[in-house]
Design brief:
The chain is α/β, with parallel strands linked by helices. 42% of the residues lie in helices and 13% in strands. The protein folds into 3 domains: 1-51; 85-92 and 103-320, Spore Coat Polysaccharide Biosynthesis Protein SpsA, Chain A, CATH 3.90.550; 334-398, no CATH class.
Length: 399
């Protein structure tokens, strides 16, 4: 029996070339593979097996040489720095008791995080789901809406934009502005502003909601949900609800907007947190987060992660609600609108979505056995496929 050495050499060459090609692909794509596979496996292992975040209290505690502000009416104490108010409305929720006035009964304090130049987005919100007059007259609910913002970071545009903001506030009286640069890396400052302002000027609000200015809130459904919580025997306590991220790993890729270096956060997993696009906390949780911001160093510039750090330090855990959106838009369909609470990514279509979602005929589409069956089938088709997985989970189809 004779062996064909030429054929053997050819097979070996093909194997070597194939192996080399695979290794090259792995080397080129390793960073992506590490982020999407290795880091997530490490993070989930830490979250579900170790599940210890005791380091938070010591590693993020403000050092003893940190000095709080004087607590005056023009400053926000705690956090990174004391920034003076440029625009403020301390009487938005009624009196404070010192002058004999009583606080108004407020169901929801709604903070919308907005950039100074986003005039159109704020106006669209005022005209639709943030219309507090509509909420009061149609839903019989007392809601306070304010927009949280800093100053425009572009020196060339700062003066013009600030002048427009002052004019806008004279017309609507709903801007809360601090003197810090309104940039991505200052989002945590904006979060601190929300809880400090709420603690000082609207502590009686039963709930506080934080939302981005490109989010859509189905206010009738939200008010209904909050009232259901209040009607329970235990009342609305220990509530932090939204789209929950569990076992999320820090992003180490330097080109990413959400890059977090090891020296800022060396651990493989974040504490559980809700998507910052929109979440709700009860009054007692809002107070706990306020106190946490006084004790913890806010160097973590990803605001929803910092919220998770504060909550973990105070013993608060987030609760999942399947109709609070994640990072994507919810499907456009009446069967979705009937349960929708939030949807993310609506910078231009807020008005049309508001008209469609609050149309009186929406609820009729899911009434009765056949209507319910029809809507369940539609929601399965819309929610149980990967395209919409960043909004509502598949289980939402059966609720």
């Amino acid at each position: 029996m004779f062996m064909n050495f030429r054929r053997i050499h050819k097979c070996q060459c093909v194997q070597l070339l194939t192996t080399g090609l695979v290794l090259c692909v792995v080397m080129v794509c390793w960073e992506e593979l590490d982020h999407h596979m290795v880091s997530h496996m490490r993070s989930y292992t830490y979250r579900y097996l170790v599940n210890s975040y005791d380091f938070l209290n010591s590693s993020f505690a403000i050092s003893t040489n940190y000095h709080h502000g004087n607590g005056g009416s023009n400053n926000v104490d705690g956090g990174l720095v004391n920034y003076p108010y440029l625009i403020n409305h301390p009487g938005k929720c009624g009196g404070g008791g010192e002058d004999g006035e009583s606080w108004d009964d407020v169901l929801l304090l709604l903070f919308v995080k907005s950039s100074p130049e986003n005039f159109d987005r704020r106006q669209a919100i005022r005209d639709t789901w943030g219309n507090v007059s509509f909420v009061l007259s149609e839903l019989r609910a007392s809601v306070r809406l304010v927009f949280a913002l800093g100053v425009h970071p572009d020196v060339g545009q700062k003066s013009r934009v600030q002048s427009q903001l002052l004019q806008e506030d004279r017309a609507y009286g709903d801007l809360i502005q601090l003197n810090f640069l309104d940039t991505f890396h200052n989002l945590t400052t904006k979060l601190i502003l929300q809880f400090h302002w709420g603690h000082k000027y609207c502590p009686q609000a039963r709930f506080l909601m934080s939302a981005d200015d490109d989010i859509f809130v189905h206010m009738p459904n939200l008010v209904k949900y909050l009232r259901q919580l209040l009607s329970r025997q235990t009342g609305a306590k220990d509530l932090w609800v939204g789209h929950v991220h569990r076992g999320a790993p820090p992003i180490r890729r330097k080109e990413s907007k959400y890059h977090v270096p090891y020296d800022l956060y060396p651990w493989p997993s974040y504490p559980d947190y809700t998507a910052g696009a929109g979440y709700v906390v009860s009054r007692d949780v809002a107070a706990k987060i306020y106190h946490a911001t006084l004790l913890l160093n806010s160097s973590m510039y990803i605001d929803d992660v910092f919220m998770g750090i504060c909550a973990k330090a105070m013993g608060v855990s987030p609760q999942e609600h399947v109709y609070f959106s994640g990072e994507g838009k919810a499907p456009y369909h009446p069967c979705i609108y009937d349960h929708m609470i939030t949807s993310h990514g609506h910078a231009t279509d807020v008005r049309s979505l508001w008209r469609a979602a609050t149309d009186p005929t929406v609820s009729s589409s899911s009434k009765g056995f056949m209507g319910n069956l029809y809507c369940t089938a539609v929601k399965v088709m819309l929610l149980c496929f990967p395209y919409y997985q960043s909004t509502y989970p598949c289980m939402a189809a059966f609720i």
